User: Fold this.
Amino acid sequence: MKSVTDMPAIKNIVLLFLFGLYSVHCIAQDDKPLSGDFKNLRFDEFVIQIEKNTDYHFYYNPAWTDSLTVNLSVIRKTVPDILDEIFQSTDLRYAVDKNHVIYISLGQSLMTDLPFDFFGEGEQGTRKNNEQEYSPYEEIEKTKEEKLYTIGFKNANSKTTANIAGYIRNAKSGEGVIGASVFIENPLVGVASDQFGYFSITLPKGRHELIIKSLEMKSSKRQVMLYSDGKLDIELIEDITPLKEVVVESERDAQVLGLQMGLEKLDIKTMKQIPVALGEVDIFKAILTLPGVQSVGEGTVGLNIRGGASNQNLILYNDATIFNPSHLFGFFSAFNPDILKNVELYKSGIPAEYGGRLSAVLDVNTREGNKRKFTGSGGISPVTGRFSLEGPIFKDKTSFLIAGRSTYSDWLLTQIPSATLNNSKASFYDLNLAISHQMNDKNNFYASGYISKDGFRLGSDTTYKYANQNASVKWKHVFGNKFYGILTGSYSGYDYSVTSEENPVNAFQLAYSVQQANLKADFNYFLNSKHTINFGASSIYYKLAPGDLQPNGSESLVVSNVLQKEQGQESAIYIGDNFEINPRLSIYAGLRYSLFQNLGPKDVYTYNPDEPKNENNILDTVQYEAGKKVASYQGPEYRFSVRYTLSDNSSIKFGYNKMRQYLQMLSNTAAISPTDIWKLSDSYIKPQIGDQYSIGYYKNLKSMFETSAEVYYKTMENFLDFKGGAKLILNRHIETDVVNATGKAYGAEFMIKKLSGKLNGWVSYTYSRSLLQAKGATPSESINQGKWYPSNYDKPHAVNFIGNYKFSRRFSMSLNMTYSTGRPITLPLAKYDLNGAKRLYYSDRNQYRIPDYFRTDFALNIEGNHKIKKLAHSSWTIAVYNLTGRQNAYSVYFVSQNGTVNGYKLSIFGSQIPTITYNFKF
Amino acid sequence: MVVKKDLLKMKTLWLVFLVSVSCVEPYEPPTIENGMGILVMEGSMNTGGKSRIRLTRSQNLSETKKVAVELKAIVSFEDEVGTTFRLTEEGGGNYSLAPQSFDQKKLYRLTIKTADLREYASAFVPIVKTPSIDSLTWKVTSDNGVQLYISTHDASNNTRYFRWDYEETWSYVSAFNSRFTWLNGKPVLRSDNIYNCYRTQPSGKIVVESTANLDQALISKFQLLYLGQRSEKIRFKYSILVKQFGLTKEAYEYWLQLQNNTESLGTLFDPQPSQLTGNIVSLTGASEPIIGYFTAESVAEQRIFISSDVLPRASTYITPFDGCTADTLTVQTITLLRAKDLPNIILLESLPSGPGAITAYSSSTSACADCRSVGGTTTKPDFWQ
Assistant:
């Protein structure tokens, strides 16, 4: 075994550097502390002094240190501590070997010991495995927490505050840690790291204990001496399965002290504890346990947030819009749980950078991939299998993440002794690829691709297929400590097809697609300790193929019917300011201005203005040429939030936001179904405009319980609902089949959370109403005679309970209970004879409800042992979905049979569903 | 239930999938509180002839019985100043009024007082003058079917909206001609004819059209209905009686909405249903719904006949008797038949068909050999030419 001490030349050090070897500092154990003044010394002068007084010896390149001046007075400090202080705001790093030789390098510190058997000489060495309580990372972590980091230069300027910026990274993978809190306690000043793990905090000059807390990660702290603006990168250690949830405190702090209201953050760990059907962690199922979030039924992915329609949610996956976030008609969410980094749901107080949807924003980000070593994970459940692999392409610079998921349900179906089911097919897969590249301290690149495909045929000869395709590229450039920008380009596509082969004469294929290309620039400016400003601009180009019906096969008599394509452009600029007026009062004020243009080529029908819009009243067709403006809408969107801290553990918040939506979904089913079509605003379909006011009270009790109460009121203009008898598919004049409704939604959400201790979880109650009114000029343009009526997803009462009990680090149990009012439906009530034909008499729209929903799920999680060094971490989840076997109604439908009309209630999960899932990570 | 049976198998197989765990159970929708059903009104005030109003009741969805009719009701037309014209009950829920001279400038409404003393009234409606039918024509289409057209116009341009109701009548034959019948359990020659029938069928469709977008109230060759080449209706002789009603804009809207409210029940391409009642309200309990839209107008009528000898012949026609077969019953077998089986066995011809003693009869069922089994009548209608 050879050591670097045998190769003193800098050249060789550089060579080793190129090998990409890397280690964190090794600390000499038997240091004698030094005291004394080093005033205005050049670095080489300083080195001479140290070498004179200690047994340390320096190797360095004078070119790197010639501009460095040492200006320190030290009392009983070790040499490494002194060096830490000197090098803190520079790119210089150092390493010390056991002979007290100090190697100074640029950028990264050196490894003073070669890895075992570096020169392939076999097992001559006797390097022992450390049998220690702490992992190597933890050992280093302890030292880092105690060390004093000096930031900036003394007497650099006369300001009383200075800024620290840097990245918070996962020590193991090198990935940025999102949403970590970085704060000092006295005075209480804190920030959260952004989606890249970047933070920027402005503090009074002087010595501070900087506390860093994050979900998933072990909390850490740094002792800093702040002189002037400088950089500090912080690495955190992953907390594999914490018994003591320190992290929770940070969330608690965030709840009361954060400015944002109506924001729900979910990490993958919380999601994993929620029992699910079919054995897969599902972010949508997890989100559904939060107050104010509902869906129309089981097995649907459409979320109805605070009384909004499912298409009013902006779902971003690595910044690209997802149009259909579901697999298998909604039984699985389209996101592979293994690669998710974080999920943020904005229910109110939506920041100005988001726009284009009325109700909520769901921002889903995948991990960047491990920058330091190859790892993988996967899982096997009764229906699906998934696998992901990640690792460095260039260590610490570039990483990749690739993941796939598929189902073997086709095979399962053929195993079932039933002719109907044998003929059924159901399959899906999704693929993810992410690449992250850190070019240098200033420039980072991220690329991500996503494909999901579904095919579905249940006992009939109609096949449904749909697919999402997404790609996004991001470039983050740091202009300076306080200012950075991100340029993002993304593409989102969604298409579906319905193929029928049942009867050769009627065989058809129906296709639909929507595509959008998006370019945006976002900037973040940490002006000072009071103001953080973000601003930017974005533009989206849409292209829709609203319907294409073709005969399928030579015998088919279906007449081809192709609807004209639609084009549109939506652009926006925004600016927002986070202003901390004083420690008690903070405000956020934002303004977004959006402009939408529907573009030609397009043929637009004109209607007799005195008559209701219907086919019989078409007067003329106006033809617009390619690129010509068909219709244009624009307007400001205001965003505003206030937080007032009442005491150390309670606060009150107010939020207001105005949103505009230029792309709406038309659906003839209550749930998101693959055949839903998206429609751009045009001459007749006006953009939806929504306003939401919310107020909340947050209080932490006995540092154990977190309570919150939020009340909101929301109005919606130009909400689209459908006329009686509306036809949505292959309709060339959809404006004749929709009505312009006004919506209002209001509600109150109450939640008590206990996130620490062996028993943790939350219970929430939501009262919410979602009502619509369509009052047109004529009866056909009104619904329910112009009276307010409940929307399809109006479910006034909802109670959720999530409880986890940890028996030990390895065993935990969770129980989930959900109750909600049944959703409204329109029922046929009677039949009657008119003009010699039987007709049905329907109730007013949505005047009845399907039976109430109640479900209990149970899961037992068994983690593998917690040895840090082992081939793979594995876990088992045994879950029972719908423990009570209640037959919750998904839908009620009617079938005409031999002259009578019979009603049926369909329950999707009508019995207990046990599943067992094996997950692994290496 | 199939799905449930699968469910059990699945559980034992321990395979978990959505299809297996879903289950379907009967669902009883809430029924209308009034056990009698909702009052349904059909008909209109005819200012140029006999007016007919029919009152029935709606039924629960699972009901299999015939529609209940509303008897012993007092049905009247009433003008704004209170002049009433009481209709006379004809039985079967039908009420009628002989031709009257109504004041064309007045508004009229319908009032109903049922036997249980509930009172209903429509909104006051104006009298619409229905122009006469200009022509009711047909032509053979490229695929050898028959397309019927209707044309009309209102020279005064007052009547802009139209509705058509039609009644089709056609002659047809059963699958086999029966020459024998039963008398005291023995075959005898048949004297009546159960082979040739006439069937009359109301349109059951709502056909409306607007001229609101045109300069004139002119309807030219509106496509009323289409008959396929193999339709049984045009196999021998076909007749159609078309009634034309002029409508107000409100009435047109009502019929248009009713047209969109199909009877389909929520498959992929089906439209959303909506509630539709009309312009009649309850005077006793305001929330009680009443189905029907009362209008007042003159009615224009026209009947035409289409004989098959002027049409291209089809090789086969689609009839209700497709799939019918004949059997052979030997004389010996006949003696073994029980009396209660006989009415359903129709004897066709004696065998052998040539000279010689009868050894057997060809036979079929009444559903195949009796043309009345599909709803027609052997009586020739009065108007039949």
